[in-house]
Write a structure and sequence with these properties.
The protein has three domains: 120 residues, no CATH class; 61 residues; 32 residues, no CATH class. The radius of gyration is 23 Å and the shape is flat. Strands 1-2 form a two-stranded antiparallel ribbon. Helix content is 60%, strand content 2%. The protein has 239 residues and is an all-alpha fold. Bound molecules: zinc ion (ZN). The site of zinc ion has 8 residues, from helix 10.
Amino acid sequence: MSKLNVRNIHSPNLDDHIYHLPNEGPGYDDLKQLYAWSFDDAWKAQNEWKAKNTRGRGPLFRWLGAQELKELYNTHKAGNSAAILEAIFLCSMNSLPIPRWCEMAYITAYRKVRQDKAKSWDDVFGRPHPKGMHLETKRQEREKGFKVYDMIEKIKQDDPTTPIDGFLFETIGRKLGIGGKTLTETYYYKELTFRKRYKCDGCGKRYAHWHDINKDGFCNYCEDKKKALDKNKTIKQSP
Ligand SMILES: [Zn+2]
């Protein structure tokens, strides 16, 4: 899936406009509002929602999902049929109404199989895995990634001063039977990026929750540091 391109959010293609929304109804108004929001609107709505809810993903994620749906429309339009199931997944994850383009594409694809015009789901929705991929190898890689990450997390809990270095990766790699420290390191950072996907633009530290990073991209620690610096500047500038 392509990365969200924030610059393209507010440049709707008028011809495509109707396909981004469902037919008239509650879902139409819901998605139309999400498309109209700016990032700040979504951020504000999320904070208001968070004060009242402890379950679910909230408006910010629905907004992000809506933006991704727009990108998937382009992916699908460019001929990639895998965008259909990806869009259905996004809608399910974020309780989003299904846009018209996705609804139409899904019905067409489904009917091709049901009416014996296509042999398999892969023919209409695209292959889920690349040809020749070893499922077992791929699954083991993923599981080893979990194990490396968990082991390092436990070590860090016991002794937060433990350096995350070549020696640590080598020890863990040997313990888990992965072998080389480079491979173990790769597993660790892949897993870290997956689990802590919110990165601070200041210190580079990774966080598990979006609300650990403010809308300027900084963590609380960096924000406080910035505020202290600004305050110092003001004091020095005043006569
Ligand atoms: Zn930071």
